[in-house]
Amino acid sequence: MRRTPRNFDGTFLTGKCISDLLPSALKEIREKAGQQTEEIFQFWRELIGDKIGPLTEPISFEEGVLTVKVKSSTLYSLLCYHERPRLMKRLQEKFSIRNLVFRIG
Question: What is the pTM of this model?
């Protein structure tokens, strides 16, 4: 005995072509990824604070890696070696971030 899907009246096919489903699924994924990036950038500004905030700028979030541009080598050193573990912990509590990379620029 074969199982009949619920609410099936026998007049239409139950399967769907992947080409019909793919565009809407990809659009939804792109929107969610873009929203998450913007949320991460806003959270970075809150996390880093008003004093250091103007000296840093998140520039990209790709494949779980947040890249942040810093204004000076002194700030780069401070963030990389002293603040990075704290920042990573706070970011990972809220988002799925694998790594935090700083660039001087």
Answer: 0.68
